[in-house]
Design brief:
Blueprint: H1 2-6, E1 13-15, E2 19-21, H2 26-37, H3 48-61, H4 68-75, H5 79-95, E3 98-103, E4 107-112, H6 121-129
Antiparallel strand pairs: 1-2, 3-4
Length: 131
């Protein structure tokens, strides 16, 4: 959010159940797009907290297996870093009755335990990550 403020824009607005958005007029939108065209975000390094939220969102939104390589590419970090992050994620998920399953040659998958088969619970958990 510092980027927006430092560039003269209003901060992002967060509304639970709706998402994150930016209120702008046409002129501000054009100026922001022009500013973003000149930014090279490929060098941005996610913090550990940002990586964990990204990985959690990824795992909870997809029903199938995902590989360490896919997670590594998504977060732009090494497989070793993903492995360390998954240890923290496994503990976080277990408290919420979600099991993180690893399978050789398949990858990792998140599964709701029988006690957590509440409709919409995955979506609710993802939404609460950013509140």
């Amino acid at each position: 959010m510092g980027f927006l403020k430092n560039s003269g824009f209003q901060p992002l607005i967060r509304k639970q159940g709706i998402g994150i958005f930016l209120e702008t007029n046409d002129s501000d939108s054009k100026n922001l797009l022009e500013l973003l065209r000149h930014c090279n975000i490929s060098y941005y390094v996610l913090t550990k907290d940002e990586r964990i939220k990204l990985i959690l969102t990824y795992l909870l939104q997809y029903e199938g297996y995902t590989t360490m390589d896919a997670l590594s590419e998504e977060a732009r970090v090494s497989r070793g870093t993903i492995s360390a992050d998954l240890k923290h994620i496994k503990k976080w998920l277990s408290v919420r009755n979600i099991e993180l399953i690893s399978s050789t040659n398949k990858g990792v998958i998140s599964k709701l335990t029988p006690f957590a088969k509440i409709p919409g619970e995955r979506k609710q958990i993802v939404n609460n990550l950013f509140c």
